[in-house]
What we know:
Helix content is 48%, strand content 17%. By secondary structure, the chain is α/β, with parallel strands linked by helices. It folds into 2 domains: 2-34 and 282-386, no CATH class; 47-280, Alpha-Beta Complex (Spore Coat Polysaccharide Biosynthesis Protein SpsA, Chain A). α2 packs parallel to α3. The mean pLDDT is 88.
Amino acid sequence: MLITHDLIATFGVACLIAGCGYEVMALIAVMVWKLRGSGPVTVPATSPAVTLLKPLCGAEERLYENLRSFFLQNYREFQIVFGVRDAADPAIATVERLVKEFPDIPTKLVINAQQHGSNRKVSNLINMLPYARNDVLAIVDSDAHVDETYLEKITAALAQDGVGLVTCTYRSVPAQGLWSRLGAMYINDWYIPSVLLAWLFGHRGFASGQTLCLRRDTLEAIGGLLPIANHLADDYELGERVRQIGLHAVLSDYVTRTEHYEPTLDHLLGHEIRWMRTIRALRPQGFRFLFVSFSLPLALLGALLLLSVPSLGTLSLTLFAMTVTARLSIYAAARWGDERLNLADLWLVPTRDLLLLWVWWRALRTSRVIWRGHEFSVDAEGVMRGLR
């Protein structure tokens, strides 16, 4: 019994140290990223012409506002190419409206249903590429919203020596409703802090579809987009291939903004299981230990285990309090400078972390994902195969 009691106490302390350590380090990473700042961007007269590639599928929330922000760039020369797979896609009406509103911006709408692989977004991009007339390409998700300096900043980063790809982090702004607020917290309070923690320790493997900016000759050197047309994590695969030819993929100071809309719990879980399954495909070994990043449930488990060990009460309370403080600080830091801090959502923090644990468990036990109504199996290499 004494040995069992000691093992429980040891495990409880380990849970508290792991949860507290992760959360404190994640907070440090977020603060370092925010406090490092970015200087003014000087755009030379010879700044390269850019083609923005915007694959579309459906009339998403705030699609008009998001797409319109790209027409307002303070940039010398750029073209926008939109792509859809279906001539009946409702996104077409939004594009046509913007073309009429901004007749001086070179714009092309590509409607092509040809499939080049199981990843429909990449197939859409392959169909769009022949219409891109500039040598710098910026692939950007349809839900991204930017200000007028966006192209200035990402092309300035691409101009640095040895840089082959520029990507961005992003800030998720929830639409109305409980599920949207929980979904935005997944991005702001857990995913982006984990990306910045990896960045703080020197990892440069992050690449996000919110921005993938590269030169045409770089894309040709890695074989184009066709080699990643069956991959779930197409953005990560693109970054990996750029690094394999000896170029750097850098994280820009620029932060895009997205509208996060989750109408139902099932919708929310479907999204997050797919995203978690993507992480599992990229880091299959480390994924099993991802629970360490769910600090509140882990610290709570540790504190409960130590309730029967009065001699460790002070240590338990201190570590648990530090975990809670760091977690709430990340909640506040994620909204620093972007919106009024909504204290009414604080009660969602433990709910969000418990839901993260559930989504991780589901992703650990399944190889299937649902993406825009289509079901796929995902193998150990992150390759998708359609099931229906």
